Amino acid sequence: MHGLSLVLRTVLTPGDEVIVPTPTFSFDGLIRESGATPTYVPSREGDGWALDPARLEAAVTPRSRAILLCNPNNPTGYLPDAATIAAVVDIAARHRLLVISDDSWQHFTFDGRSYQPVEAFADRWPHLVTITSLSKYYALASWRLGYVLAPPPIVDALERRLQWEAVCCGVVPQRAAVAALTGPRDWLDHALSTYQAKRDLVCDGIAASGLTEPVRPAAGAFLLVDCSRLGDSPADIDRTLLRHGIATIRGADMHAPDTHVRLTFGSDEQVLGELVDGLARACRAVAARP
Questions:
Q1: Domain end: 124, 156, 182, which one?
Q2: How far is 247 from 266, CA to CA, in rounded Å?
Q3: Which pLDDT does position 144 carry in this prediction?
Q4: What is the pLDDT of residue 274?
Q5: Which member of 49, 135, 182, 183 lies 3.0 to 4.6 Å from 141 by CB, making a disulfide possible if both were Cys?
Q6: Based on the domain organization, do 16 and 112 belong to the same domain?
Q7: For residue 13, which phi and psi values (nearest 5 degrees)?
């Protein structure tokens, strides 16, 4: 988050607009802190929450400065393919925009799919920035480390800004980060290999519970679930889920439909089993109401 905040405050100026496909992670405050305004471009659940380049380009105005992606997408688990990323870069080139991509979940991909970085298309348009984190795959969340890939002038400007905010990152976390990036990954890869089965356990459990079968995420550790059956408002849905031991993030907080919630599936299988059992109990309780 700090890396993305640094980038946005460095490359944006008051009055700029940032085009953001939604649903998406909580970027709103970061964009507004920079003095810019987000322009949200909704994706459709019926399309698998896929990014639509044509709708993205239609949102460009003379004040547009950047396109901000979340790749893979949090909260939907949508993973854009190479053709989609290339189309976004081409839009940026036509309108002279930056492409800024938060790729914190890049290692978590399923069903033989591959993560596609925007840098793969730097020959089409070089004004690309990627922010990523060691909190997810490398499990270094408590040390708050990440890194930014960007053209040299942006990196230089980021370094100058960081020096006034934090001087530098701690030496011990930096050494740990180097060890994580360059050392053996057997245990990490083993842990990662369990996530597809966890995804399937939760998605199958949701469908069996009586809720609408969700779009099965192609990446990440989260998904959006239509919980409209559980209440007439987001507050009703929250209360129903909490009564059955389930804490979520409202979809509306991530620019998704307010009938939806974000669930995560990174826990062990016992906890995930309790999650799907709780969803089934919630559905039965609602069905039993007079």
A1: 182
A2: 14
A3: 81
A4: 96
A5: 135
A6: yes
A7: -130, 160
Q: What is the pLDDT of residue 77?
A: 96
Dig out the tokens for 272 from the structure. Answer: 């995930």
Report the alpha-carbon distance of residue 10 to residue 12 in Å, rounded: 6
Q: What count of other Cβ atoms lies within 10 Å of the Cβ of residue 5?
A: 18
pLDDT at residue 39 in the model: 97
Half-sphere exposure of 7 (CA within 13 A, CB side): 28
Last residue of a domain, one of 182, 211, 243: 182
* Token duo for residue 235: 């507050």
CA distance linking residue 268 with residue 256, whole number of Å: 27
Query: What pLDDT digit, counting tens, does each position of 159-207 carry?
Result: 999 888 877 778 888 898 888 889 888 888 888 889 999 999 999 999 9
Is residue 278 within 8 Å of residue 245, measured between CB atoms? yes
Asked whether the beta carbons of 7 and 100 are under 8 A apart, the reply is: yes
Q: For the chain, which ranges sit under pLDDT 70?
A: none
> What does the DSSP assignment read for 59-99?
T--TTEEEEEEESS-TTT-----HHHHHHHHHHHHHHT-EE
10 Å Cβ neighbour count for 289? 5
Contact 169, 146 (CB under 8 A): no
CA 46 to mean position of chain CA atoms: 19
Contact 190, 217 (CB under 8 A): no
Task: Report the number of distinct structural domains present in the chain.
Answer: 2
152 and 209 fall within a common domain: no
pLDDT at position 62 is: 97
pTM of the model: 0.92
Q: Is residue 189 part of a domain?
A: no
How deeply is 233 buried, as exposed, middle or buried, from its count of CB atoms within 10 A (0-12, 13-18, 19+)?
exposed
Q: What is the DSSP letter of 216?
A: P
- Write the CA distances from 59 to 16, 41, 87, 102, 127, integer angstroms: 13, 7, 15, 20, 19
